[in-house]
Amino acid sequence: MSRKSQRSRVEMFRKDFITLAVECGGSYATKADRVRIAKYFLNYLRENGIKLRDTHSINTRHFQGYLLSRKAQGISHRTIQNERAVMRAILQKDGRYKLAAPDNPLLSNETLGLTNTCRDGKKNTVATGGIPEGIYRGGKKESRCCSGNATFLCTGFANEGSSPVM
């Protein structure tokens, strides 16, 4: 009698949680970021000895403990808020609407101590004078045709709305 190896319930939970993260939709980069954050959460559960067997077993204390541990690691408040939004999306996809509610009093920004945040980015814009002329105007570019025999010179776009000169 052959016996099939079976995944443990904890491993199945991990796989299901990552699958939920992918199923939330979005671009490839969004899905990849969501999976990365889901893995952070699953690693937090494993490191703290929390063995969940079903996604419906996730409680507020697990969610809150993860966010507070990220805060203790020195992660910026805005990043933690973004991770919280990702976790809410995953839980909402699973049908955990009460836990995923943005106005949940146990998981609010005030309760977690994430109130002093700013949505302004840290990057500055590049002034028009700082961009090299070739990049700014399209520049000259040498390209070959499909067969590789002939060479065409493309001067790029001089003005918006005009066509390239070949």
UniProtKB/TrEMBL annotation:
UniProt GO MF annotations: DNA binding
Domain called Putative integrase N-terminal: residue spans: 14-100
Keyword DNA-binding: yes
Keyword Cell membrane attributed: no
UniProtKB keywords: DNA-binding
Signal peptide: none
Pfam families: Phage_int_SAM_2
Record InterPro entries: Integrase_recombinase_N, Putative_integrase_N
Name this protein carries in UniProt: DNA-binding prophage protein
Source organism of the structure: Escherichia coli
